[in-house]
Structure formats: structure tokens, C-alpha cells
What we know:
The protein is mainly alpha-helical. Among the domains are: about 80 residues, no CATH class; about 100 residues, Serine Threonine Protein Phosphatase 5, Tetratricopeptide repeat (Alpha Horseshoe). The protein has 18 helices and no strands. Helix 3 runs parallel beside helix 5 and helix 16 packs antiparallel against helix 17. The longest helix has 17 residues.
Amino acid sequence: xxxxxxxxxxxxxxxxxxxxxxxxxxxxxxxxxxxxxxxxxxxxxxxxxxxxxxxxxxxxxxxxxxxxxxxxxxxxxxxxxxxxxxxxxxxxxxxxxxxxxxxxxxxxxxxxxxxxxxxxxxxxxxxxxxxxxxxxxxxxxxxxxxxxxxxxxxxxxxxxxxxxxxxxxxxxxxxxxxxxxxxxxxxxxxxxxxxxxxxxxxxxxxxxxxxxxxxxxxxxxxxxxxxxxxxxxxxxxxxxxxxxxxxxxxxxxxxxxxxxxxxxxxxxxxxxxxxxxxxxxxxxxxxxxxxxxxxxxxxxxxxxxxxxxxxxxxxxxxxxxxxxxxxxxxxxxxxxxxxxxxxxxx
Length: 346
């Protein structure tokens, strides 16, 4: 159209910008927005909303702020939804100060902050392990007449979990229920994580029982949190029990499944129990749970330390039969095996 000197209107440009943005071609979308500005054409609110949403998905706060600046220059009204997307992007980065500054600008612009706005701020505080600031914003939203929902409370409990403050997390659960908000799966998983981080394994286990009593079924995250907590507490037998329950419950899945199997294998090897470690490594292989080099090398070393060279060699051969076999593994008789790395983080 441009090459043939056909007059291009704002609608045509907005269609192109929207298509580019939705395809993830943000540079091209911004190019055509600049072309519109240079040619005195006004983009629609819907076009800006699409661009803001797609840039927000990238988590690029600086770029998002530039889009807001363009909207301000074009005298386009920024909606509460747009502000929420920007504040959420700041929250994902744990940038509390930036999120708070945008809330202030939102208020000055006359856009109403809602539960999504405050929940994003509280999530930002949780990312930074700033419990006091998270609690401040919960109080502020209540004073503003905005009632917290399950997402809000989960973010606050998550802040407690990140700091390993199990007692505070319990207190917020109690207040949550008193305010008529029912905890969900994420709430319980977060509480379990808080207890696990504080080293309170018994309480973490109690939460799994409590959630089941409330009709909330545990998932792979629930069980893997307990497995990780048991391994951290150097209780291989307890970790094994929870992995067995996870398998029986049908909650074993993908990467989390692999983590749990490898965690239990390596927990047993740390205790020098080659037999139990071998049993779980065999189960991991049978379940296609992707055993790690650390698991194989731990089993091999455990058998070597027990003086069972033949068993060690069997596991070297089994390792060679996997995708890990592409790496060089020397035999136990006078040659070196893998050094056992630390257990991968949860």
C-alpha cells in the first residue's frame, strides 16, 4: 500500500501492530507504531493494550515502561488492567520499589487499584523475602476496601515460606480462613515448604494430612517437598516412604518424578547403604525417571566402599547402557569412577 501510494489509515496500522505483537515480533510492532506516530496517526487503546500484554509476557519492564511513555505522549488513557500488567512484571522480578512507584502513579492517574494490583505487590515482596512489606500492603488493601483473595494470601504465605517462618505462615492461614477464604492446593504446598525450610519435618507432614482431610488432593509438588525435606534431614527411610506414597497416589510426573527418585538414591548412598540405593536406582530406570550421573556414581562408590567390586562393575555397565554412557566411566579395579556431586537442589 505504501509503495503504491495508497493512503494507509490508522486501522490498517493497528491491525499490523496487533498481529506483530501477538506473534512475539515486538520490534516490528514498535516499528509500525513509530511509523504511525511519524505520520500523525493515532493507535487505538486496544492496540496499546495488546502491545502492553505481549511485552509484559516477556517480563521486559524497561520496554514496558517505554510503551507507557509513548501512551502518555499520545494522551492515551492507561487502564487499571495495563497498570496491573506492569506492576506484575515488576513483581516477577522482585522489584518492590518499582512496583510501588507504579502503584502511586496509577493512583495519581485516577485508575483504581484492585485485588490483582495488591496481590502483585505482595508477590513482589515475597520474591524479595520482605514479609513486613507484604503485610503492610495487605493491610493497605483492606483499608482501601479491597478484600484479599486466595491468590493474595498465598503470596503472603509464600513470603513466610521463603524466609522459613513456619509460625507466621500458620498465622496467616488462620486469618485467611477467618476471613472466609478457603485454602487451596498451592496454599498447603507453600505451608509445607515453609515448614521444610525451617527444618520442621513433622509439621510439613502434618500439613499433607490436613489438606487431604479438607478434600484437597496432594500433587507431585506436595510429595516432592516432603521427599526433599526428608533428604535434607538425612532421613533416607522417611524420604523413601513419601516417594512410595507419591507413586501409589499416581502423582509421579516428569522432572519432579526424576528429582525424587534421584534424591532417594543419593540419600541412601550418603548413608553407605548400597543395597537400598541400588534398589531405587533400578526402580528409577524402570520408571523412566532419568537417573543422574550423581546417582550412578553414588551407587558405584557405595559398592566399592563395601568391597563389592563385581556389583560396582555391574552398575558401570548399566550406566554405559544409558545416555550417560557417552561419558567415560572407568572400572573400579584401580581406575577412577565419577566423583559423587552434591544432591541437586529442589
